[in-house]
Amino acid sequence: MPKMKTKKGAAKRFRVRAGGTVKRGQAFKRHILTKKTTKNKRQLRGTTEVHSTNVESVRSMLPYA
């Protein structure tokens, strides 16, 4: 069997934590920010956890993570 390839787009977007959970950056913070409230923009900072329904597909894209 050849080695499995990592989906490089997914590798740039997701990190697997030591406990096995997957973290991701927040969306909706790149452009069209004038119509968004300051509170909304502040709460979009930082990272969050990938939803449990999507973890399996993300882990399959990152076979060595």
TrEMBL record:
SUPFAM superfamilies: L35p-like. It comes from the Bacteria. GO terms for biological process: translation. Residues 45-57 have a biased composition (Polar residues). InterPro entries: Ribosomal_bL35, Ribosomal_bL35-like, Ribosomal_bL35_CS, Ribosomal_bL35_sf. Keywords: Ribonucleoprotein, Ribosomal protein. Belongs to the bacterial ribosomal protein bL35 family. This is Large ribosomal subunit protein bL35. It comes from Quisquiliibacterium transsilvanicum.
